[in-house]
Structure formats: C-alpha cells, structure tokens
Write a structure and sequence with these properties.
Oligomer: single chain
CATH topology of one domain: Transcription Regulator spoIIAA
Number of strands: 18
Structural class: alpha/beta
Shape: globular
Distance between the termini: 47 Å
Helix content: 25-40%
Radius of gyration: 22 Å
Strand order of the largest sheet: 1-2-3-4-5
Bound molecules: iron/sulfur cluster
C-alpha cells in the first residue's frame, strides 16, 4: 500500500478540461477529510479510453484491497451502470456532481452504510450554468489550464462528448480574469484557455461576449501573464476580435490547434461539421498573411463511415494545403448512441492503415518544421528537470518540445539557441 493511497489520488484520463477538474476534485476531497481514496476521472471519446479506465480500476483494487474508489468523468456520466456493476467501485459520480464539495462530504459520511447511494449522476442536459471553481494551481505543472466553457451545442455525428458534458455553458468573464490573475500571481507564466467548444464562449452570457473579447480582457487585465495559449478551436467560429488577437498579440502563442476532422466536403457534411475544406484553407491563409510564423495543428479522424480512398486522399491533401505541423490522428471509433455508429462502416484494417498513413505524413511535416528551427533563437517555458538537473525540457512559443543543456528552474521562460534536433525534441543552449 503506497503512502499516496493513504491520502487522495486522482487518476485522470482524456482532455485538458478533465485535468483542470481533477485539481478541483482533489481539493474538495482533501477538504472533506477523505483518505485512502482513488478517484478515476474517466474519458468516453473512444471505446479504448473507457476500457483503459475499467482496467486501471480493477488493477488498483487488486493492488489495494481496502482503498476507496470513486469513478466519475464522461464514461461514468454516459453509462454509470457499467461502473455500478463493478464490485471494485464504491461510488459513481456524474460530471456535475464531481465538482460539488458535498459529494465528497456525503461519501465520507455514508461510506460503508446501507444508505450510501452508489450512483449520483443526474441529467447533464439539464445543467444550464457553469460556476468557476477556483484553484491555486497544479501539483505537477508549470502551465496552467483555465476552464472558460463546458459542454457543446453541436451534435457532430461521430461525437459522444455532448452526452457526457451537456450543452454549452460559459464561465462568467470576471471569474476567468480572477482565476487567471490568481494563477499568474502563483507563478504560472503560461495560461491555456480550456473547455469543450471554446469558440462558442459567451453565447449564453448577458451581452454575449465572444472568445476574442475574453482574450482581449485577459491580456489587458493580467498584464504580467507572459503566455496565453488556446486549446482546440473550430476555425469556422472565429470572431473578429479573436482574429485580431491571434494575428496581432505577441502574448497569444503562435500555435493554433484546429478541430478539422476531415479534408473531404462530403465526409464533413456526413459528420455534421460546420466548415468546408475551402474554409479551412482560406482561414490558414488569412492568418498566415498577418502572422507568417504561426503554426497549425489539427485533429483528423481516419476511416469515418463511408470514407473511400479518394475522400481519404482529400484529408492527406488538406494537411499539405494548410501546411499543418502537429497532427492528432484518431482512428474512427464507433460510439454507441451516435448517428455515425449506424452508418456503413469502413473495415477495421483500412481504418488502421489510413491512420498510419496520416500519422506518417504528420511526422514528416513535424520533422520538417523542427529541422527548420535549427540556428534560430527561441523562447522556452521550462517544464521539468531531466537527468537530475543537467538539462531541462520545455516548450517553445510554437509548442515545439525543446531540451536545454543547462540546469534551469522549472517555470522559468528563457531564451535559447537551437543547436540540433533529436528524437522529436529540439536541442538548445541558453542564449541570454
Ligand atoms: S463540436 Fe462536435 S466534436 Fe466538438 S465536442 Fe461538440 S459535438 Fe463533439
């Protein structure tokens, strides 16, 4: 029994929003005086993610027979029964209940009693608001995620997220500014704006501020915030203020991750996406015209139902047409309850091959970008030590992983010269 299990451990799967929420849950559980408890914050984006959570729960129980186990997150929200049936599990909490302090107080008070309810999961679609849960920081991070929004109003045909997260709801702007100020005061130099569909920020707030308005406010009212980074965005939903911030604000990091999903217009239509391949190409061109050094990443699904070779080729061509650098490739995974799960599927073997072809192209593009950094001066946010202080690792403004051959404090932003590129990482030396 490790000492960690004597206290609280949170096992986080999936997205940055889960990472932020895990910090909130840990605080609640500690304040409730819980001990010897493991909380699993699950993900439901793929069947594999849910399987990994179940496996991790079984292993934890086997290794620690007397530990208390709470399961929450999107997989628990969408299908709580699957975890209720597991003897290893003591409590199943919904995505809303997991953020409420009383959930942990009740768990502590009722643990082992007959009256203890094993499932506390309500209808996530009934949630209309998202309160901000202030955190002081992250146990093991030098980059801080700030939640600005939760849920999603869209219904892309392959996506299970709205059934786990509910409809879109925004955190009031004042709370976000206060949260960001608190994190920067606590030493965080990079703030990452996080949510499920952040470009829909503000639709549900009075006077409907946009994500661009929010970014402008943060840059104005948190002047000592060195770096502001956006998590995944829907390029078709970019507002004018955001376009101005992206193309003109130095503190807004020159790295955008786009939720593209496919490069073929027929497949985009069958996915119920709101953009065409031409929209994406045009967006990248317009941004680069004003900020030439910006880099783009993208999420792309391989093997969406009905995708034939020509349609797949359009995804490969889009990577080139937009000169994408960071690719996140998702082999299509049918999610029960989504419309796409009822469409004629592509065979598993073809899905695997297409995912591998996209990944190979992604690596080629990434290597090309990284090689082009050699000789340049870059700014690096140091994230952690390597080799006991002889060198450290961090990320440049373009989100390139970089190693500095010098002992530098984690959390510092330093200037370095790129000397080389090895195994996916830039090799740099301090250049003050
Ligand atoms: S925009 Fe589409 S893919 Fe993204 S969370 Fe919403 S439904 Fe899912």
């Amino acid at each position: 029994m490790t000492s960690e299990h004597k206290k609280i451990e949170v096992v986080t799967f999936g997205c940055r929003l889960n990472t932020y929420e895990s910090e909130v849950m840990k605080n609640h559980a500690e304040l409730a005086g819980l001990d010897n408890t493991v909380i699993f914050n699950t993900c439901a984006v793929t069947a594999e993610a849910t399987r990994q959570a179940r496996q991790s729960i079984r292993r934890t129980r086997k290794e620690n027979p007397d530990v208390k186990i709470i399961v929450t997150g999107c997989a628990a929200q969408i299908n709580p029964e699957q975890f209720k049936r597991m003897d290893e599990v003591d409590q199943v909490l919904g995505n809303e209940e997991k953020l409420q302090a009383e959930s942990y107080l009740n768990f502590g008070e009722n643990f082992g009693l007959d009256k203890a309810e094993k499932i506390l999961v309500n209808d996530i679609m009934s949630i209309k608001e998202t309160a901000n849960h202030f955190i002081e920081g992250y146990a093991d991070r030098t980059r801080a995620f700030v939640q600005v929004q939760n849920g999603c109003d869209h219904r892309c045909t392959f996506c299970i997220i709205p059934y786990g997260r509910g409809n879109s709801r925004s955190v009031p702007m004042g709370d976000i500014v206060s949260q960001t100020k608190r994190l920067v005061e606590n030493g965080y130099q990079e703030i990452i704006i996080t949510g499920v569909d952040i470009t829909s920020y503000g639709h549900d707030l009075p006077r409907q501020p946009t994500l661009g308005d929010l970014c402008q406010k943060l840059l104005k009212f948190v002047p000592n915030m060195k770096r502001l980074r956006l998590s995944s965005i829907d390029s078709i939903e970019i507002d004018d203020a955001l376009f101005q911030v992206i193309t003109e604000e130095e503190r807004l990091m020159p790295h955008l991750h786009l939720s593209l999903q496919s490069g073929d217009n027929m497949i985009l239509k069958r996915m119920k996406r709101r953009h065409s391949r031409e929209d994406t190409i045009d967006f990248c061109k317009r941004v680069r015209a004003k900020r030439p050094d910006i880099v783009f990443g993208a999420d792309i699904i391989a093997g969406f139902p009905t995708e034939d070779e020509e349609m797949f080729q359009n995804s490969l061509r889009l990577v080139e047409a937009c000169d994408l650098t960071f690719l996140h490739i998702f082999p299509y995974s049918a999610r029960e309850g989504t419309p796409a799960a009822k469409m004629p599927p592509v065979s598993g073997d073809i899905i695997k091959v297409r995912a591998a072809r996209l990944r190979a192209l992604g690596e080629e593009k990434f290597d090309h970008f990284m090689m082009a950094q050699i000789g340049k001066r870059v700014s690096i946010l140091v994230e952690k030590d390597l080799e006991s202080g002889k060198s450290v690792i961090g990320h440049t403004e373009h989100f390139a992983p970089a190693k500095i051959l010098a002992p530098v404090m984690a959390g510092a932003i330093v200037t370095a010269r790129v000397k080389g590129y090895e195994k996916g990482i830039l090799i740099t030396e301090l250049d003050n």
